Amino acid sequence: MKKKCELIREFAQECDKSGKKYLCILTKGFKAKGYLYTEKEIEGLITLTDARIKPYMKGGECENNSEQKHLEWLNIFADDIVAFSFTE
Description:
By secondary structure, the chain is of the alpha+beta class. Helices cover about 15% and strands about 45% of the residues. A 5-stranded antiparallel sheet has the order 4-3-2-1-5, with helices on one face.
C-alpha cells in the first residue's frame, strides 16, 4: 500500500491538469486548506503554502467554527492526515 504523502502528490499531479490546485486536508484536530508545496518532497510530511486552518469545535460538535488562522507555511505529518481533497 502506498504511503499517504505519495498518494497526495500523485493526485495533485492529476488534479493539476483539471485546474484543481487547492488542497484540503482533514486531521483529527483541524481542517487545513492551501496549495501543495512541490519544490521539495520530504517523506512523511505534506507542506501547504498560503494555508488556512480551521480547528474543529470542542466536544466533536458539527457546528460551524468561525475561528480561522492564516499561515504562510504549514507542515502536516502524514500520520495526522485522516482525509484529503483537491478543489479549484
